Protein backbone atom coordinates (compact mmCIF):
# COMPACT_ATOMS: atom_id res chain seq x y z
CA UNK A 1 0.00 0.00 0.00
CA UNK A 2 1.15 3.54 -0.75
CA UNK A 3 0.70 4.68 2.84
CA UNK A 4 3.12 2.01 4.10
CA UNK A 5 5.65 2.72 1.36
CA UNK A 6 5.46 6.44 2.20
CA UNK A 7 6.29 5.83 5.84
CA UNK A 8 9.36 3.87 4.84
CA UNK A 9 10.36 6.44 2.20
CA UNK A 10 10.41 9.15 4.86
CA UNK A 11 13.15 7.18 6.63
CA UNK A 12 15.44 7.14 3.61
CA UNK A 13 14.77 10.21 1.44
CA UNK A 14 14.69 13.94 2.28
CA UNK A 15 11.01 14.84 2.31
CA UNK A 16 10.27 11.25 1.36
CA UNK A 17 11.06 11.66 -2.35
CA UNK A 18 13.87 11.95 -4.88
CA UNK A 19 12.37 14.92 -6.75
CA UNK A 20 10.25 17.46 -4.88
CA UNK A 21 7.16 17.61 -7.12
CA UNK A 22 6.53 13.95 -6.27
CA UNK A 23 5.61 15.06 -2.76
CA UNK A 24 2.92 17.43 -4.07
CA UNK A 25 0.20 14.76 -3.90
CA UNK A 26 -1.37 15.02 -0.43
CA UNK A 27 -1.43 13.59 2.18
CA UNK A 28 1.21 11.36 0.57
CA UNK A 29 2.10 10.27 -2.96
CA UNK A 30 0.60 7.19 -4.50
CA UNK A 31 3.12 4.61 -5.70
CA UNK A 32 3.03 3.21 -9.23
CA UNK A 33 3.33 -0.51 -9.84
CA UNK A 34 3.26 -0.32 -13.65
CA UNK A 35 2.28 1.77 -16.65
CA UNK A 36 0.86 0.72 -19.99
CA UNK A 37 -0.42 2.91 -22.79
CA UNK A 38 -2.39 5.85 -21.39
CA UNK A 39 -2.69 4.29 -17.92
CA UNK A 40 -0.72 3.99 -14.73
CA UNK A 41 -1.56 1.40 -12.09
CA UNK A 42 -0.96 2.03 -8.41
CA UNK A 43 0.18 -0.15 -5.55
CA UNK A 44 -3.30 0.41 -4.09
CA UNK A 45 -4.98 -1.32 -7.02
CA UNK A 46 -6.22 1.79 -8.82
CA UNK A 47 -5.81 2.78 -12.46
CA UNK A 48 -5.50 6.35 -13.71
CA UNK A 49 -5.44 7.89 -17.18
CA UNK A 50 -2.06 9.58 -17.03
CA UNK A 51 -1.67 13.13 -18.39
CA UNK A 52 1.65 13.71 -16.63
CA UNK A 53 3.56 11.10 -18.65
CA UNK A 54 6.77 11.30 -16.66
CA UNK A 55 6.52 15.12 -16.96
CA UNK A 56 6.76 15.01 -20.72
CA UNK A 57 9.05 12.30 -22.13
CA UNK A 58 6.42 9.62 -22.81
CA UNK A 59 4.85 11.06 -25.96
CA UNK A 60 4.06 7.51 -27.12
CA UNK A 61 2.54 6.52 -23.77
CA UNK A 62 3.82 3.98 -21.27
CA UNK A 63 5.79 0.90 -22.34
CA UNK A 64 5.41 1.39 -26.08
CA UNK A 65 5.93 -2.00 -27.71
CA UNK A 66 8.31 -0.87 -30.45
CA UNK A 67 10.52 1.07 -28.04
CA UNK A 68 10.50 -1.85 -25.61
CA UNK A 69 11.51 -4.27 -28.36
CA UNK A 70 14.44 -2.09 -29.45
CA UNK A 71 15.62 -1.55 -25.87
CA UNK A 72 15.56 -5.29 -25.17
CA UNK A 73 17.60 -5.89 -28.32
CA UNK A 74 20.19 -3.39 -27.09
CA UNK A 75 20.26 -4.79 -23.56
CA UNK A 76 21.12 -8.19 -24.98
CA UNK A 77 24.14 -6.56 -26.68
CA UNK A 78 25.20 -4.64 -23.56
CA UNK A 79 24.15 -1.46 -21.80
CA UNK A 80 27.32 0.53 -21.05
CA UNK A 81 30.63 0.66 -22.87
CA UNK A 82 32.34 4.00 -22.25
CA UNK A 83 33.24 3.72 -25.93
CA UNK A 84 31.28 5.13 -28.91
CA UNK A 85 28.53 3.03 -30.47
CA UNK A 86 26.69 3.26 -33.77
CA UNK A 87 23.33 4.24 -32.27
CA UNK A 88 24.58 7.60 -30.94
CA UNK A 89 25.46 8.62 -34.50
CA UNK A 90 22.07 7.44 -35.75
CA UNK A 91 20.19 9.47 -33.13
CA UNK A 92 22.37 12.54 -33.73
CA UNK A 93 21.76 12.27 -37.49
CA UNK A 94 18.00 12.13 -36.99
CA UNK A 95 17.94 15.07 -34.56
CA UNK A 96 20.08 17.19 -36.87
CA UNK A 97 17.86 16.31 -39.86
CA UNK A 98 14.74 17.57 -38.08
CA UNK A 99 16.45 20.50 -36.31
CA UNK A 100 18.93 21.97 -38.81
CA UNK A 101 20.16 24.63 -36.36
CA UNK A 102 21.84 21.70 -34.56
CA UNK A 103 24.91 21.11 -36.70
CA UNK A 104 26.73 19.29 -33.92
CA UNK A 105 25.45 17.83 -30.67
CA UNK A 106 26.72 16.53 -27.32
CA UNK A 107 24.64 13.97 -25.45
CA UNK A 108 24.50 14.22 -21.66
CA UNK A 109 22.18 12.71 -19.05
CA UNK A 110 19.54 15.26 -18.06
CA UNK A 111 18.02 18.59 -18.98
CA UNK A 112 19.94 20.09 -16.08
CA UNK A 113 23.25 18.94 -17.56
CA UNK A 114 22.20 20.18 -20.99
CA UNK A 115 21.44 23.73 -19.89
CA UNK A 116 24.41 23.89 -17.52
CA UNK A 117 26.80 22.96 -20.31
CA UNK A 118 25.11 25.17 -22.90
CA UNK A 119 25.56 28.15 -20.58
CA UNK A 120 29.20 27.23 -19.94
CA UNK A 121 29.77 26.87 -23.67
CA UNK A 122 28.17 30.24 -24.40
CA UNK A 123 30.43 31.89 -21.85
CA UNK A 124 33.48 30.19 -23.26
CA UNK A 125 32.59 31.16 -26.82
CA UNK A 126 31.73 34.81 -26.13
CA UNK A 127 34.28 35.40 -23.36
CA UNK A 128 31.49 37.00 -21.31
CA UNK A 129 30.21 35.99 -17.87
CA UNK A 130 26.59 37.09 -17.63
CA UNK A 131 23.47 35.36 -18.88
CA UNK A 132 19.89 36.58 -19.17
CA UNK A 133 16.95 34.35 -18.28
CA UNK A 134 13.25 34.89 -17.63
CA UNK A 135 11.20 34.88 -14.46
CA UNK A 136 9.57 31.48 -14.08
CA UNK A 137 11.56 29.75 -16.81
CA UNK A 138 12.97 26.51 -15.44
CA UNK A 139 16.27 25.31 -16.85
CA UNK A 140 17.13 22.56 -14.40
CA UNK A 141 18.58 22.44 -10.92
CA UNK A 142 22.09 23.89 -11.26
CA UNK A 143 23.14 27.16 -9.63
CA UNK A 144 22.81 29.48 -12.62
CA UNK A 145 19.33 28.18 -13.47
CA UNK A 146 17.83 28.43 -9.98
CA UNK A 147 17.27 32.17 -10.12
CA UNK A 148 13.57 33.09 -10.29
CA UNK A 149 12.93 29.56 -11.49
CA UNK A 150 9.64 27.86 -12.24
CA UNK A 151 8.39 24.29 -11.77
CA UNK A 152 8.85 22.64 -8.39
CA UNK A 153 11.17 25.46 -7.33
CA UNK A 154 8.16 27.79 -7.35
CA UNK A 155 5.78 25.15 -6.03
CA UNK A 156 7.88 24.68 -2.90
CA UNK A 157 8.71 28.36 -2.44
CA UNK A 158 12.37 28.24 -3.49
CA UNK A 159 12.61 29.87 -6.95
CA UNK A 160 15.90 31.20 -5.56
CA UNK A 161 17.46 28.23 -3.79
CA UNK A 162 19.64 28.61 -0.74
CA UNK A 163 23.21 27.44 -1.17
CA UNK A 164 23.95 29.48 -4.31
CA UNK A 165 26.87 31.91 -3.88
CA UNK A 166 26.11 35.59 -4.28
CA UNK A 167 28.87 35.76 -6.86
CA UNK A 168 26.86 33.38 -9.05
CA UNK A 169 23.65 35.35 -8.61
CA UNK A 170 25.40 38.50 -9.82
CA UNK A 171 26.01 36.86 -13.20
CA UNK A 172 22.32 36.11 -13.87
CA UNK A 173 20.02 38.85 -15.15
CA UNK A 174 16.25 38.28 -15.12
CA UNK A 175 13.51 39.77 -17.29
CA UNK A 176 9.80 39.02 -17.34
CA UNK A 177 8.80 36.56 -20.05
CA UNK A 178 7.25 38.28 -23.08
CA UNK A 179 8.93 41.61 -22.14
CA UNK A 180 11.14 42.54 -25.09
CA UNK A 181 11.72 46.05 -23.79
CA UNK A 182 13.53 44.67 -20.75
CA UNK A 183 15.63 42.37 -22.93
CA UNK A 184 16.73 45.13 -25.25
CA UNK A 185 17.66 47.38 -22.34
CA UNK A 186 19.74 44.69 -20.62
CA UNK A 187 21.52 43.64 -23.79
CA UNK A 188 22.34 47.23 -24.61
CA UNK A 189 23.81 47.98 -21.18
CA UNK A 190 25.40 44.67 -20.12
CA UNK A 191 27.95 42.29 -21.66
CA UNK A 192 25.74 39.21 -21.82
CA UNK A 193 26.99 35.87 -23.11
CA UNK A 194 23.58 34.34 -23.81
CA UNK A 195 19.85 34.70 -23.48
CA UNK A 196 18.30 31.37 -22.45
CA UNK A 197 14.56 30.90 -22.82
CA UNK A 198 11.85 28.28 -22.81
CA UNK A 199 10.22 29.10 -26.17
CA UNK A 200 6.97 27.96 -24.57
CA UNK A 201 6.99 28.11 -20.80
CA UNK A 202 6.20 24.62 -19.60
CA UNK A 203 7.23 24.98 -15.99
CA UNK A 204 4.80 27.67 -14.85
CA UNK A 205 1.89 25.78 -16.28
CA UNK A 206 1.91 26.51 -20.00
CA UNK A 207 2.58 30.05 -21.19
CA UNK A 208 3.01 30.70 -24.91
CA UNK A 209 5.19 33.44 -26.35
CA UNK A 210 3.34 36.52 -27.50
CA UNK A 211 3.49 37.36 -31.19
CA UNK A 212 6.94 38.66 -32.09
CA UNK A 213 8.59 37.78 -28.78
CA UNK A 214 10.84 34.98 -30.01
CA UNK A 215 11.69 36.78 -33.23
CA UNK A 216 12.51 39.84 -31.16
CA UNK A 217 14.89 37.80 -29.04
CA UNK A 218 16.58 36.56 -32.21
CA UNK A 219 16.92 40.10 -33.55
CA UNK A 220 18.26 41.63 -30.33
CA UNK A 221 20.73 38.84 -29.57
CA UNK A 222 22.11 39.05 -33.10
CA UNK A 223 22.44 42.84 -32.81
CA UNK A 224 24.40 42.66 -29.55
CA UNK A 225 26.51 39.57 -30.43
CA UNK A 226 24.84 37.51 -27.74
CA UNK A 227 24.00 33.83 -28.19
CA UNK A 228 20.37 32.72 -28.15
CA UNK A 229 19.74 29.44 -26.35
CA UNK A 230 16.38 27.75 -26.80
CA UNK A 231 15.68 25.36 -23.95
CA UNK A 232 13.65 22.77 -25.84
CA UNK A 233 13.85 20.05 -23.22
CA UNK A 234 10.03 20.09 -23.23
CA UNK A 235 9.15 21.49 -26.66
CA UNK A 236 11.69 19.52 -28.69
CA UNK A 237 9.81 16.99 -30.86
CA UNK A 238 6.55 17.93 -29.13
CA UNK A 239 5.34 21.03 -30.97
CA UNK A 240 6.71 19.78 -34.28
CA UNK A 241 9.44 17.42 -35.40
CA UNK A 242 11.62 20.52 -35.61
CA UNK A 243 10.58 21.66 -32.15
CA UNK A 244 9.59 25.21 -31.26
CA UNK A 245 12.12 26.54 -33.75
CA UNK A 246 10.25 25.04 -36.68
CA UNK A 247 6.85 25.79 -35.14
CA UNK A 248 7.58 29.49 -34.57
CA UNK A 249 10.05 29.98 -37.42
CA UNK A 250 12.97 31.11 -35.24
CA UNK A 251 16.44 29.49 -35.13
CA UNK A 252 18.62 29.48 -32.03
CA UNK A 253 22.42 29.45 -31.76
CA UNK A 254 22.29 26.67 -29.18
CA UNK A 255 19.48 24.28 -28.33
CA UNK A 256 19.02 22.08 -25.29
CA UNK A 257 17.00 18.88 -25.55
CA UNK A 258 15.85 16.11 -23.23
CA UNK A 259 12.71 14.17 -22.34
CA UNK A 260 11.34 12.85 -25.67
CA UNK A 261 14.75 12.17 -27.26
CA UNK A 262 15.43 9.58 -24.54
CA UNK A 263 12.16 7.72 -24.97
CA UNK A 264 11.64 7.70 -21.20
CA UNK A 265 15.24 6.90 -20.26
CA UNK A 266 17.66 9.47 -18.73
CA UNK A 267 18.79 11.91 -21.41
CA UNK A 268 19.93 15.42 -22.17
CA UNK A 269 21.62 17.04 -25.13
CA UNK A 270 22.85 20.41 -26.29
CA UNK A 271 23.77 21.35 -29.80
CA UNK A 272 24.11 24.17 -32.25
CA UNK A 273 26.34 25.86 -34.75
CA UNK A 274 29.50 23.98 -35.68
CA UNK A 275 31.89 26.79 -34.73
CA UNK A 276 30.33 27.07 -31.27
CA UNK A 277 30.15 23.34 -30.56
CA UNK A 278 33.77 22.84 -31.62
CA UNK A 279 34.75 24.84 -28.52
CA UNK A 280 33.95 21.68 -26.50
CA UNK A 281 36.64 19.25 -25.39
CA UNK A 282 38.39 17.45 -26.95
CA UNK A 283 38.34 19.83 -29.94
CA UNK A 284 38.23 22.97 -27.77
CA UNK A 285 38.77 24.17 -24.22
CA UNK A 286 35.22 24.20 -22.79
CA UNK A 287 35.06 21.02 -20.71
CA UNK A 288 32.32 18.43 -20.71
CA UNK A 289 32.55 14.71 -19.96
CA UNK A 290 30.33 12.00 -18.55
CA UNK A 291 30.49 8.27 -17.92
CA UNK A 292 26.90 7.87 -19.10
CA UNK A 293 27.00 10.39 -21.97
CA UNK A 294 25.35 8.79 -25.05
CA UNK A 295 24.37 5.73 -23.03
CA UNK A 296 23.31 3.13 -25.62
CA UNK A 297 20.01 2.34 -23.88
CA UNK A 298 18.87 5.96 -23.89
CA UNK A 299 20.14 6.39 -27.45
CA UNK A 300 18.20 3.33 -28.59
CA UNK A 301 14.97 4.33 -26.84
CA UNK A 302 15.18 7.86 -28.20
CA UNK A 303 15.86 6.71 -31.76
CA UNK A 304 12.96 4.24 -31.60
CA UNK A 305 10.64 6.95 -30.27
CA UNK A 306 11.50 9.34 -33.09
CA UNK A 307 11.01 6.56 -35.64
CA UNK A 308 7.47 5.96 -34.35
CA UNK A 309 6.80 9.69 -34.42
CA UNK A 310 7.89 9.94 -38.04
CA UNK A 311 5.58 7.20 -39.30
CA UNK A 312 2.49 7.59 -37.10
CA UNK A 313 1.69 11.34 -37.18
CA UNK A 314 2.10 11.45 -33.42
CA UNK A 315 2.09 15.23 -33.04
CA UNK A 316 -1.17 15.60 -34.97
CA UNK A 317 -2.85 12.81 -33.00
CA UNK A 318 -1.69 14.07 -29.60
CA UNK A 319 -2.84 17.57 -30.53
CA UNK A 320 -6.28 16.21 -31.41
CA UNK A 321 -6.56 14.69 -27.93
CA UNK A 322 -5.48 17.95 -26.31
CA UNK A 323 -8.13 19.82 -28.30
CA UNK A 324 -10.87 17.45 -27.14
CA UNK A 325 -9.80 17.62 -23.50
CA UNK A 326 -9.50 21.41 -23.44
CA UNK A 327 -12.90 21.77 -25.12
CA UNK A 328 -14.41 20.08 -22.06
CA UNK A 329 -12.23 22.10 -19.68
CA UNK A 330 -13.59 25.29 -21.28
CA UNK A 331 -17.08 24.31 -20.08
CA UNK A 332 -16.08 24.55 -16.41
CA UNK A 333 -18.13 27.34 -14.87
CA UNK A 334 -15.54 28.53 -12.36
CA UNK A 335 -13.66 31.51 -13.91
CA UNK A 336 -10.54 30.27 -15.62
CA UNK A 337 -8.19 30.56 -18.56
CA UNK A 338 -6.63 27.71 -20.53
CA UNK A 339 -3.27 28.06 -22.24
CA UNK A 340 -2.55 25.44 -24.88
CA UNK A 341 0.15 25.03 -27.50
CA UNK A 342 -0.39 21.89 -29.61
CA UNK A 343 -0.36 18.91 -27.20
CA UNK A 344 0.61 20.67 -23.97
CA UNK A 345 -1.77 22.80 -21.88
CA UNK A 346 -2.76 23.96 -18.43
CA UNK A 347 -5.80 25.51 -16.78
CA UNK A 348 -5.52 28.50 -14.42
CA UNK A 349 -8.43 29.40 -12.14
CA UNK A 350 -9.47 32.86 -10.97
CA UNK A 351 -7.54 34.88 -13.55
CA UNK A 352 -8.38 36.28 -16.98
CA UNK A 353 -5.00 35.80 -18.65
CA UNK A 354 -1.58 34.30 -17.97
CA UNK A 355 1.26 35.63 -20.11
CA UNK A 356 4.13 35.50 -17.63
CA UNK A 357 5.16 33.98 -14.31
CA UNK A 358 3.87 36.87 -12.21
CA UNK A 359 0.38 36.38 -13.64
CA UNK A 360 0.63 32.59 -13.26
CA UNK A 361 1.40 32.95 -9.56
CA UNK A 362 -1.81 35.00 -9.12
CA UNK A 363 -3.97 32.05 -10.20
CA UNK A 364 -5.90 30.29 -7.45
CA UNK A 365 -3.64 27.34 -6.85
CA UNK A 366 -5.93 25.93 -4.19
CA UNK A 367 -8.78 25.68 -6.71
CA UNK A 368 -6.53 23.91 -9.21
CA UNK A 369 -5.42 21.43 -6.54
CA UNK A 370 -9.06 20.74 -5.61
CA UNK A 371 -9.81 20.08 -9.26
CA UNK A 372 -6.75 17.85 -9.57
CA UNK A 373 -7.82 15.78 -6.54
CA UNK A 374 -11.36 15.50 -7.93
CA UNK A 375 -9.96 14.23 -11.21
CA UNK A 376 -7.89 11.59 -9.43
CA UNK A 377 -10.99 10.37 -7.63
CA UNK A 378 -12.60 9.99 -11.06
CA UNK A 379 -9.69 8.13 -12.63
CA UNK A 380 -7.67 10.88 -14.32
CA UNK A 381 -4.22 12.09 -13.27
CA UNK A 382 -3.28 15.72 -13.99
CA UNK A 383 -0.04 17.07 -12.52
CA UNK A 384 -0.28 17.77 -8.77
CA UNK A 385 1.16 21.25 -9.31
CA UNK A 386 -0.30 24.34 -10.92
CA UNK A 387 3.16 25.03 -12.31
CA UNK A 388 3.49 21.92 -14.48
CA UNK A 389 2.11 21.09 -17.91
CA UNK A 390 -0.58 18.64 -18.89
CA UNK A 391 0.65 16.41 -21.74
CA UNK A 392 -1.05 14.03 -24.15
CA UNK A 393 0.45 10.95 -25.79
CA UNK A 394 -0.20 8.70 -28.77
CA UNK A 395 -1.77 6.18 -26.39
CA UNK A 396 -4.45 8.76 -25.50
CA UNK A 397 -5.59 8.76 -29.13
CA UNK A 398 -8.38 6.38 -28.30
CA UNK A 399 -12.13 7.04 -28.15
CA UNK A 400 -12.53 5.33 -24.78
CA UNK A 401 -9.64 7.24 -23.20
CA UNK A 402 -10.98 10.56 -24.49
CA UNK A 403 -14.60 9.89 -23.47
CA UNK A 404 -13.56 8.68 -20.01
CA UNK A 405 -11.46 11.82 -19.57
CA UNK A 406 -14.33 14.08 -20.65
CA UNK A 407 -16.67 12.32 -18.22
CA UNK A 408 -14.14 12.67 -15.39
CA UNK A 409 -13.85 16.42 -16.04
CA UNK A 410 -17.65 16.78 -15.92
CA UNK A 411 -17.77 14.93 -12.59
CA UNK A 412 -14.84 16.95 -11.18
CA UNK A 413 -15.84 20.49 -12.15
CA UNK A 414 -17.85 21.49 -9.07
CA UNK A 415 -15.29 23.86 -7.52
CA UNK A 416 -17.31 26.47 -5.61
Proper CATH architecture of the largest domain = 3-Layer(aba) Sandwich
On the 0-100 scale, what is the average pLDDT? 95
Low-confidence stretches: none
Helix fraction by DSSP (H/I, runs of at least 4)? 25-40%
Total number of beta strands: 14
Shape: globular
CATH fold node name of the largest domain: Aspartate Aminotransferase, domain 2
Number of domains: 2
CATH class of the largest domain: Alpha Beta
Task: Provide the spatial order of strands within the biggest beta sheet.
Answer: 4-10-9-8-7-5-6
Query: Radius of gyration in whole Å, from Cα?
Result: 21 Å
Order of helices and strands: HEEEHHEHEHHEHEHEHEEHHHEEHHEEH
CATH superfamily of the largest domain: Type I PLP-dependent aspartate aminotransferase-like (Major domain)
| Structural class by helix and strand composition | alpha/beta
The main β sheet shows up as: 7 strands, mixed
- By DSSP (H or I, 4+ residues per run), the number of helices equals 15
Distance between the termini: 32 Å
Beta percentage is: 15-25%
Q: How are the SSEs ordered, and which strands pair?
A:
Blueprint (H helix, E strand, L loop, with lengths): L1 H11 L19 E5 L2 E4 L4 E4 L14 H13 L8 H13 L5 E5 L2 H16 L3 E5 L17 H4 L10 H4 L2 E4 L4 H10 L2 E6 L15 H11 L3 E5 L11 H6 L5 E5 L9 E5 L1 H4 L18 H16 L2 H16 L6 E6 L2 E6 L7 H6 L2 H13 L2 E2 L8 E2 L7 H14 L4
Parallel strand pairs: 3-13, 5-6, 5-7, 7-8, 8-9
Antiparallel strand pairs: 1-2, 2-3, 4-10, 9-10, 11-12, 12-14
Helix pairs in contact: 2-11, 3-11, 7-8, 12-15, 14-15
Keywords, please?
single chain, 416 residues, alpha/beta, Aspartate Aminotransferase, domain 1, Aspartate Aminotransferase, domain 2, four-stranded mixed beta sheet, globular
Amino acid sequence: MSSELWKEALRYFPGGVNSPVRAAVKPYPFYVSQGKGAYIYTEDGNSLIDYVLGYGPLILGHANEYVKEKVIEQIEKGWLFGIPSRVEIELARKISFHMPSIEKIRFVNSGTEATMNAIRLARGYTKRDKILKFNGNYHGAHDYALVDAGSAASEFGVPNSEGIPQEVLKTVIVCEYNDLQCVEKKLKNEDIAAVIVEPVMGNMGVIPPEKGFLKGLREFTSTYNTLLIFDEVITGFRLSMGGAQEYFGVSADLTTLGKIIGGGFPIGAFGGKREIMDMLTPSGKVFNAGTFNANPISMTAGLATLEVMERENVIEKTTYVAEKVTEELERIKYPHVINRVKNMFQIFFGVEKVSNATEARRAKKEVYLKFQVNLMKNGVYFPPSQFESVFTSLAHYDDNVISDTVLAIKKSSELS
